[in-house]
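Milestone M4 deliverable, item 7.
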Amino acid sequence: MFPGQGSQYKGMGAELFERFPTELEMANELMKQDIKNICLEDPNGLLSETQYTQPCLYFVNCLHYLALKEDNNVRPNFLCGHSLGEYTALFAANVYDLYTGFKIVKKRGELMSSVKAGILMAILGDKIDQITNILNEEGITNIDVANYNTSEQLVIGGTEEDLKVANEILEKHGYRCVILNVSGAFHTRYMIPARAAFMKYLINFKFNSPNMPVVCSSTMEFFDPRYAIETLGYQITKSVNWVNTINKLRFLGVRNFQEVGPKEVLTRMTNKIL
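Output delivered:
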């Protein structure tokens, strides 16, 4: 399991950059920035900006996987990732090489950061599946579910005005609401402009058949290179359903879930689901 945006922190990858100098040099050339400096020192606060967060986190996730592969000779039965993390899963499955994935993720981050409409809000509480019904009954229809993270947490996206109203309604029903520090309403209808531009960009790339099955967290289907442009493009505007992704893997017989990345965000969420 590879984590997505929100798992980054200043200091991530410290144990990896010296180990993979060639990969770091190539990624720096593509980024036109010192990735090691951004990740370890972050003097200009770039690590919290989506257009830098996404390629940096993708790269660190990939280095974690390369290290794990070298040290333990692992070969997973399945791969998956939460939103951005899916791109590392595709790298691990040889759908593209490290640097092709880096170019794609860099463009994704740039496009998603350029869309300023909307914000995200996490909702915590029991009976989380009732939230959309509650909002619809109150006439709030311009809000989308961005992430189904656990049975006790989901994330919704919409305009600041709509989320303020939703906050008041949901708190009256006993839910706790937390505005997230992100640049836009990712995985909602508000990302349609980014999706359209991203799909045009993806036409330039070739996607190999995965050598290990990758379960996509927005469709819960196995990645198929024939539909790569649609799968990756529409992922930007579709909900990330981590609950059903993990449940599908459990149905397929998976009993050991290992997170590969800088934190343990997915491990905690997955343990709650299990």
